[in-house]
Structure formats: C-alpha cells, structure tokens
C-alpha cells in the first residue's frame, strides 16, 4: 500500500544485478512523465521523483489531493509515497510521487501513459469534428477516461455564437431560439437547454458548467465528457461533411440537420423546414483549419498560415505587410511539439516546451498574437542585425524572413536544452543559418553587435546595460518590462542620454533567468478550501499578519460611476493606478475565493490594489450595470480598519482615469545614479541598472 507520510525510498534502490533493467525502466518512466506534463526531479542513476502539478496532471486523479492521488496509485498497483512538495508560488500546488522500486516505476509508466493516450485520441477526434462543424472550441484530455471541451464567447450575436452553434448541431435550427441572447436570462435558458440536448445526444455522464465573463473576459462553457460520451458526441457530429471547404453556414436547407436523439440512436437526416433560419457566418469564406501532423501537406499548411494571418489581422496583432508575409512563410507547426501541434495555428494558444523541477513553465512557444504584435513593435527592416533574447526558434525564423538575405539574426537563451531544440527546429524549417547560442541574456552578444533591433521574449524587470551599449544609434529595444507588478511589451528608443518607451501592449511571458532575474514577492493572506488569496509585491514590503486580519474583516465598496462597455479596453487603468498609488500591489485570488465571499473578484495575475497604512487595503472590482451585462461599473472593495478610506482613495484615482482614459503613458529609462532633477516628472521606479519614470500628459509628480 502507498503511504501519505514520507518514507525512505533509498531502502528499495535497485541492486547491482538488476541495474541494467532498472535503468531501462527509469528511462521509460522519465520519458513517460515528461510526455504527460509531469516534471521529473533529479533523474539519473537513482529512482526518480515525479512532481505532479495541479492543472497539468489532472488526468491522474478525479480530484487533486494527496488522498485521491494515493488511491489512484493503489488502484494502478504502483508502490510509491505521496508527500507535499515545498514550493514558492501559492497558485502552483505540488505533490511529490516517489516510486519505492523499479517495479513501481514500470507500473507508474503504464498508469501515466495508458489513460492519457486514450483521452488524447478521443479529444483529437472530437476536436476535428467540432472544427469541421464550425465550432471554435478547445478540446483536451481532462482525466482518466475524460475529455474536456471549452468554448468561449465574447460576442452573443446569433450568427457567430459558438455555444448557440453547438446547440443547433445537437438539436437542429428549430431547437433553439436565437432572439435576445444579449440578455443574461436568455443565455441562462440557453445553458439549461444545451445541457438537456447534451444529455439527449450522449446519455448521462456529461457535465456542463458556465462561467460568466466580464468586460475583459468572455463567457466560458466547459463540457466534461467520459470517453464513452465523447465518442457518442463525435458520432453525433459525424453527419457533418468531412470537408474544410464547407462553412458554418452549411446548416441550411441543403445540408442534413441533426435531430435530438436518445441514448444509442443515430441522428436522422431530415432537413430544416422551409423558411427556417440557417446559421450564417460572417467568415463563411474561410477555410476550416486542419489538424497538424507530420503528414500535413504543403497546401494544407499554407492554408492554415493564411487563415492565421486573417485572424491576427482581426485581432489587430498584424498591421503591416512585412509581418503578415513572415507569418505566411514560416511553417509554424514545425516549431511546436508533436503532441501539441493542433495548437500551432490558434492565434491565442501558447505551448509549453520545458518546465523546471517544480513543474513551472520556463520555456514556451508564445501565442501567435503576442509574437505578431512584438514583430510589429520591432519593425525589423531588410539588412537589419537583430538579437533575440529568449529563444525557441520560431520567432527567430520570423525575424529572418523580415531582415532578408542581407540581414542577420542571433538568438540566445541561458538554457542549453532550449538552444539545442531551437537549432533543430530552425534547421528542419530551413533556417539553419540563424545563429543560436547559449548565453545569459543580461550580457547580450558583444561580438555580433551592434544590433538594429533587440527583441526580448522573456519578462524583464530592468534593462541590462549591455542592451543599451550593443544597440545601434537608431535602434530599438522591444521588451516585456515589469514595473510595479504590471508587465507591458514596450518599444524603447534613444533620446539624448536616456531611452523612451512607447506602444505598451498587454502581455505575459516566462520570467528572465540568470543575472537579470528579479522575482516578485507573494504575501499569502488565505489558503484553504474557501480559496487562495495573496498579494504580489514588486519592490515594496507589507505586514502579512495585519493584512491577513484585514481580509477577514467585513468589506466595504465604493462605486465610481465610471462605466465600461463589454469588451472595451482598459489596459491603461492598471498603469494609471501604478503611477498614482504609493503602496501599489496586486491582489491574486482564485475563483473559489470569489465564490466563497473572501473577495469580490478573482485574477491569478492580480487586481490593482492600494495598501493603506499597515492594516488596510482596497482593490479594483466591477459590477454589471445592465441585466444584459453589456456594461460594467468600476469600483473599489476595501478591507481592514480603514477600509472606507482606502476604497474612497482608490475610487478617486479611478474616477480621474475615467476622465482621461484615452491618454497614454510615457515610460523613460535613465541610467542608475541619474539625479532626481534630471528625471521626467511622474512615478519613479528604481532598479539596479535603470531609473524608470511613468508619466502622463499634463500630470504632476506622483512619486
């Protein structure tokens, strides 16, 4: 039997007589774990320690807990210990699985691979069916024998609503009323109706949840299906022609419409009655994407790249012809791991390529949207010399296309594994001439300088002196810079004795490692079944005991009268508050914290927060102002003895932003040691190498 308490795994170490077999099984276990998204700590001659990370190992147990993981190991016949693993991030809960013997390694290998492989195959097949049917959904394996379908909708226009589309596929156009979907109650009725249609189509076992979005997040529908029900849903959709040329508008009188079925029945082929509305698609001339695989033809891959460019233009990420042409030319799927290739041409999808021993992502292929807008920011020209800091290969290929035969691209990373992978992908894709080196990004590459463009693809908290020194006179540095916890991709250019930034873009990147690493602090305020709440602190300190007590006191709210339309951008608000608030932090909370009443909002990255004295704080919140949830009002939630004062102060700053929400900040970087009198007016943020200022049009000093 497995134990929850730790034991000494060394007692069962392999003997020398079985050493060859033990090493063979060890290699298999390590490979299996890595393929399944589980980090392996200290593999080698000793028995491995596998780290199971919440969100990346959920296929191992129906509920992520020591008890359930232990029970799963018992059922799988794996003799191993399960213990908590110390970790730094409150939101990355880890368990440590230590096999007691080489036989346990073999059993663990089979237990990891078999259920994941079955779920992956079912998810891939269902994903293809949904794509062919015109439903934009993400389908993944979600557990042993479990498939998860996730659908997001910002736009509740009946002509483009993915949830409505799925409902029509299940029940026919006559099954759902398309009127009034902007009404919250109408969408709830659709939710209930969709649940009934799913039950009729696939039988019992399907679970459907609906998470209401807000002004900056879409509504999300999640369907969890056991493998048997996933197969029935795939069969339910199999009437749809297997052709990427048929658009979403194919549910018309000329196409067979599905009928609601009971368990074991197959869909009929009855067409909609005359006069019934079809589902027109504003993008009906687009070609549906195909699944990427080693056998993907040139024409299919080119069609996927053309479609990606179209979507990136719609998102505003691609704005110029050179960037569009680079995205069209580079075979993006060759830079994505085989098991994740279906994500390659999704504009918002990123793919993790390496994790550390804690299971935390340390290298990834960024989402196409982020890569595209960074290329637009850098705007490399033919003949330019470009340095990329933080490698993966794909971005270097895009840059190589843009600088042409007369330019040069150098890509570096501190991790030898990352560079080895990048070199292989570049060679496979036809970009083997790009120079890839193992180097600490803080140092740049002096022997290949000067650079017309320096593109940083990891989160930085400072600008290294080497970047400034190796930058050509009229060059630019594009960097995802974290200031006071807020990260924006910025374009820095020289202005006399300092650098000036423009074009802030919201982004997220893995943090820089090496000499330039500067982590934030996480102050844990609450962590139990009611939720997780913490404060992310970037360059400030706070009283954990006092603020924990404040969180558990009754809250107050102050509303601002500042309204935002659903989907309207407000990305400058966080920077505005980071400029004006002296003790600025980010309140990170999970969804359970909001549902239990600990907080009035949730965000893993964090909500802008004002610390008031040592024992009170207030953070940003929102509420809908219409039943249809098409507009939202900004507000502040306060906690602690001075909750009201804190909320009023934060709300006042938000009202000031509301009067000038179209203003853009100017961010400047001065060498460390620059006297205050020579700095621009605004908030001053001191780092090791630079003194940064954030200022706004016509503002006085906020420092």
Automatic annotation (TrEMBL):
Single GO molecular function: methyltransferase activity
EC number(s) given by UniProt: 2.1.1.77
Any one Gene Ontology BP term: methylation
Region (Disordered) location: 242-303
Keywords, alphabetical: Cytoplasm, Methyltransferase, S-adenosyl-L-methionine, Transferase
Polar residues bias: start-end ranges: 281-300
Compositionally biased tracts (Low complexity): 243-260
CDD domains: AdoMet_MTases (cd02440)
Keyword Metal-binding appears in the UniProt entry: no
Gene3D superfamilies, per database record: Vaccinia Virus protein VP39
Keyword RNA-binding: no
PROSITE patterns, per the entry: PCMT
Location of the protein in the cell: Cytoplasm
Principal location: cytoplasm
Pfam family, one: PCMT
Enzyme class: transferase
Similarity section: Belongs to the methyltransferase superfamily. L-isoaspartyl/D-aspartyl protein methyltransferase family.
Protein's name according to its UniProt entry: Protein-L-isoaspartate O-methyltransferase
Species, as recorded: Streptacidiphilus cavernicola
Gene (name only): fxlM
């Amino acid at each position: 039997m497995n134990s929850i308490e730790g034991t000494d795994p060394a007692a069962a170490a392999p003997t020398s007589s079985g050493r060859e077999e033990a090493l063979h099984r060890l290699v298999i276990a390590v490979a299996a774990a890595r393929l399944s998204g589980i980090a392996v700590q200290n593999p080698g001659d000793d028995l491995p320690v596998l780290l199971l990370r919440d969100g990346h190992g959920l296929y191992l147990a129906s509920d992520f807990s020591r008890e359930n993981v232990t029970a799963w190991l018992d059922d799988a016949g794996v003799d191993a210990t399960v213990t908590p693993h110390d970790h730094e991030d409150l939101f990355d809960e880890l368990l440590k699985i230590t096999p007691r013997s080489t036989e346990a390694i073999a059993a663990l290998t089979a237990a990891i691979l078999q259920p994941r492989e079955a779920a992956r195959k079912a998810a891939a097949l269902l994903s293809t069916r949904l794509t062919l049917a015109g439903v934009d959904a993400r389908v993944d394996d979600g557990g042993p024998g479990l498939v998860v379908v996730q659908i997001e909708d910002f736009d509740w226009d009946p002509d483009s609503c993915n949830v409505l589309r799925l409902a029509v596929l299940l029940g026919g156009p006559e099954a759902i009323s398309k009127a009034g979907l902007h009404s919250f109650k109408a969408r709830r009725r659709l939710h209930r109706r969709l649940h009934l249609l799913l039950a009729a189509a696939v039988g019992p076992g399907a679970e459907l949840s609906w998470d209401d979005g807000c002004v900056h997040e879409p509504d999300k529908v999640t369907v969890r299906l056991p493998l048997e029900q996933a197969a029935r849903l795939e069969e339910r959709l199999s009437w749809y022609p297997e052709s990427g040329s048929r658009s979403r508008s194919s549910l018309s009188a000329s196409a067979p419409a599905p009928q609601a079925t009971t368990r074991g029945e197959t869909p009929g082929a009855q067409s909609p009655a005359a006069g019934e509305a079809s589902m027109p698609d504003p993008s009906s001339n687009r070609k549906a994407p195909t699944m990427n695989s080693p056998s993907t033809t040139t024409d299919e891959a080119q069609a996927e790249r053309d479609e990606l460019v179209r979507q990136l233009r719609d998102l505003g990420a691609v704005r110029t012809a050179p960037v569009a042409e680079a995205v069209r030319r580079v075979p993006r799927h060759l830079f994505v791991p085989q098991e994740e290739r279906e994500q390659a041409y999704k504009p918002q999808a990123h793919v993790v390529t390496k994790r550390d021993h804690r299971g935390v992502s340390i290298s990834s292929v960024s989402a196409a949207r982020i890569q595209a807008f960074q290329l637009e920011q850098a705007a490399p020209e033919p003949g330019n010399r470009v340095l990329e800091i933080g490698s993966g290969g794909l971005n270097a290929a895009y840059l190589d296309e843009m600088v042409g035969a007369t330019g040069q691209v150098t890509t570096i990373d501190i991790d030898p594994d990352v560079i080895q992978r990048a070199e292989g992908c570049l060679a496979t894709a036809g970009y083997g001439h790009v120079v890839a080196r193992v180097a600490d990004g803080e140092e740049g590459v002096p022997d290949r300088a000067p650079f017309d463009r320096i593109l940083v693809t990891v989160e930085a908290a400072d600008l290294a002196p080497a970047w400034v020194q190796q930058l050509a006179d009229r060059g630019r540095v594009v960097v995802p810079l974290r200031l006071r916890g807020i990260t924006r991709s910025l374009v820095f250019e020289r202005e006399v004795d300092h650098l000036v930034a423009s074009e802030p873009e919201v982004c997220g990147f893995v943090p820089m490692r090496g000499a330039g690493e500067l982590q934030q602090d996480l102050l844990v305020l609450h962590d139990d079944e009611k939720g997780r709440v913490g404060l992310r602190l970037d360059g400030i300190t706070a009283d954990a005991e006092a603020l924990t007590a404040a969180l558990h006191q009754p809250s107050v709210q102050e509303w601002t009268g500042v309204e935002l339309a659903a989907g309207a951008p407000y990305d400058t608000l966080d920077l505005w508050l980071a400029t004006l608030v002296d003790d600025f932090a980010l309140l990170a909370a999970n969804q359970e914290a909001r549902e239990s009443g600990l907080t009035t909002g949730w965000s893993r990255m964090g909500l802008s927060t004002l610390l008031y004295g040592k024992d009170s704080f207030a953070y940003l919140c929102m509420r809908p102002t219409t039943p249809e949830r098409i507009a939202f009002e900004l507000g502040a939630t306060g906690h602690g003895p001075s909750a009201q004062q804190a909320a009023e102060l934060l709300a006042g700053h938000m009202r000031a932003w509301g009067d000038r929400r179209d203003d853009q900040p100017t961010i400047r970087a001065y060498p460390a040691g620059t006297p205050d009198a020579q700095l621009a007016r605004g908030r001053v943020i001191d780092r090791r190498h630079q003194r940064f200022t954030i200022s706004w049009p016509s503002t006085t000093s906020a420092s």
